[in-house]
Design a protein that fits this description.
Structural class: alpha/beta
CATH topology: Rossmann fold
CATH architecture: 3-Layer(aba) Sandwich
Distance between the termini: 23 Å
Helix content: 25-40%
Shape: globular
Radius of gyration: 18 Å
Number of strands: 12
Number of domains: 1
Strand content: 15-25%
Largest sheet: 8 strands, mixed
Number of helices: 9
CATH class: Alpha Beta
């Protein structure tokens, strides 16, 4: 039985609030309690948690992510969803109540937000004495097990983070681009002049500005944001899920990620008849087979790498 999520708020990279929800592990899972610590035959096993990231102009309460959080929690794995600070989203309906935070958003801020949420989640479910780990550190059996799930840009950010955080044990990237920082030429021209660009958000029917801060951050740290290089350096299992009708992130980008990631650790699943959102809307009013397939694939991946070998 899945209870209502517990909201939380911590400080984001830009100094503003990071708003999120914790979906407690369901009692129907594999022996985990609500804190994410399971009791095995030889005593407690490591804490585990799945952290879910939304995409550009997405939000934590979007239907697919909410359903994924509930399904993963039902497996006995606490799930955490959150809105990036630069999402500009302030409510569960996905309204852009903080357009200035959206305007000033950068990739660096989003990666730091993800790291802060992971650190908070580890402290919440229980951890080893030091939550911070280095790329050269070999995790022990009792350290926390983190699974990352991301849609669209959230998938790319999850891959980037996983490449340098040894607490992460697996990644599920849904419709993830193989590169970030890809924009129309006229955007770059405006940013070079120090001007924001104007975007129309079809979901909310609102106009949003995206400032030159993003461009300056990208130019100063472009190598750091190389998604293909991060995928190539991964030492944890990576699940790539792609819709064959995705026009926002074409399947070719998923193929590129698959070719760069370690073959022995990577699985690719293409969902027939699915576009970028895998047939999900803002609210889940029906569950078409494509959406169900994605949710079950993600839940099985988290169970396999966070629980099965406990």
């Amino acid at each position: 039985m899945i209870s209502q999520p517990e909201p939380f708020e911590i400080e984001g990279a830009d100094g503003g609030p990071l708003r999120g929800d914790v979906y407690a592990a369901g009692t129907a899972g594999h022996g985990a309690d609500a804190a994410g610590v399971a009791a095995g035959a030889s005593g407690p096993v490591p804490a585990r948690v799945a952290v879910i990231s939304h995409g550009f102009r997405g939000y934590k309460d979007w239907g697919l992510l909410l359903l994924a959080a509930q399904r993963v929690a039902a497996e006995g794995i606490p799930a955490v969803t959150f809105n990036f600070g630069s999402s500009g989203i302030t409510d569960r309906e996905g309204s852009f109540g903080e357009p200035e935070r959206f305007r000033k958003g950068t990739y660096g801020d989003q990666l730091e937000d993800l790291g802060r949420v992971i650190d908070w989640a580890v402290r919440r479910v229980g951890s080893s004495p030091s939550a911070e780990t280095s790329a050269g550190h070999v995790p022990t059996a009792q350290e926390p097990r983190i699974g990352l799930i991301g849609h669209s840009r959230g998938g790319a950010l999850s891959i980037l983070h996983a490449a340098s955080d040894t607490r992460v044990r697996c990644v599920a990237a849904l419709a993830s681009p193989s590169a970030i920082g890809v924009w129309p030429d006229h955007y770059f021209e405006a940013w070079k002049r120090g001007e924001p660009v104007q975007l129309h958000d079809f979901r909310t029917k609102s106009h949003l500005a995206l400032g030159p801060e993003l461009y300056r951050d990208l130019e100063s740290r472009r190598a750091h944001y190389n998604v293909l290089a991060a995928a190539e350096s991964l030492r944890v299992p990576l699940l790539l899920i792609q819709g064959d009708r995705d026009r926002s992130v074409p399947p070719a980008e998923a193929y590129d990620l698959r070719e760069h990631a370690p073959q022995a650790l990577t699985e690719y699943r293409e969902i027939a008849g699915a576009g970028h959102n895998f047939c999900a809307g803002d609210k889940i009013r029906r569950t078409p087979p494509q959406l169900l397939d994605v949710i079950e694939l993600v839940a099985a991946w988290m169970r396999r790498w966070l629980i099965a070998d406990a």
